[in-house]
Amino acid sequence: EENKRRQTRSKRFENCKGGATVVKSFVKGRGGSASNRRASALKIALSCGDGNGQAVEDIDWDSLTIKGTCQEIEKRYLRLTSAPDPATVRPEEVLTKALKMVESTSKNYFYKCEQLKSIRQDLTVQRIRNELTVQVYEVHARAALEAGDLAEYNQCQTQLKTLYSEGISGCCNEFTAYSLLYIIFQNGSNRDLLSSIARLTPEAREDEAVKHSLAVRGAVALGNYIMFFRLYKTAPNLNFYLMDLYVERMRFEALRCMSRSYRPTLPLEVIARTLGFTNGAQADKDVLDECEEWVKAHGGQVVVDSASSERQFDAKASAATLFMPEPEDAVAHGDANLAVNDFLTRS
């Protein structure tokens, strides 16, 4: 029975050039050393190739690359479970039009994300790696940042690093600044951050966005909340969205510091200006209401001065009651992107 099974398996190679001879020798040598078995397996692979016994490096992989023929500009994203059909893959000129369509549409982020992932998939299966590829990943990364989709942004950022390292031009300095801020605010190790800073080119160090990211890194390392919120108000490009990841924590640390440093009270307007609730020189009523609501949500106490009717932060009474509340979008499994409401919205 064992011999019959072996013969059945060996018939798979009978259509190969010289396959039967190689298989027989392979079956006879099954009890030999590992090196003999590897050599026999290599002979089978070469004999079952194109008949020329080409090495992997000698095969013309370009002739095997998918060449798309689909002319539809809009296409849904579907995860591939088999070899792609050229009739469903769009060529480069159509993908260029699709990218322009996504950039100009007024539809929501979920639609844009699906279309951009579909474009990325068509580029990948056709092995297109040029300036169009960089533009697609840059557009998707910016859209993900604005929508707060950090998982998708991180995928795009990883691919962009590889594309930039291959010498393909794009907004390299802009995304270098984003990468630094992402490492800082996602609790990345000091080693990752120092390694990224060490790889900065002299040109990148002179870029305004990169300078801003390095200044933010210094403010976070020193706990300098005044400098942090000054940088927050003047953030270039989309640095603002990444700094948003740390604003809540920095505000809480600043409020704790103020509760220990100022006694007995501190004007609420000073807190609103210092912690970035307003960009103006003077906070209006709506800003003060927002600041008061935030202070109370973190255990702080606000009182009204009887003489001036001005709202004051009671630093002395709040020193022992401050706390960091749970995020409003927190879910049991820890990933807000997998929340049920978010899933229903996508559906």
UniProtKB/TrEMBL annotation:
Residues 149-318 form the PCI domain. Gene3D superfamilies: 1.25.40.990. GO terms for cellular component: nucleus. Signal peptide: none annotated. PANTHER family: 80 KDA MCM3-ASSOCIATED PROTEIN, LEUKOCYTE RECEPTOR CLUSTER MEMBER 8. This is PCI domain-containing protein. It comes from Selaginella moellendorffii (Spikemoss).
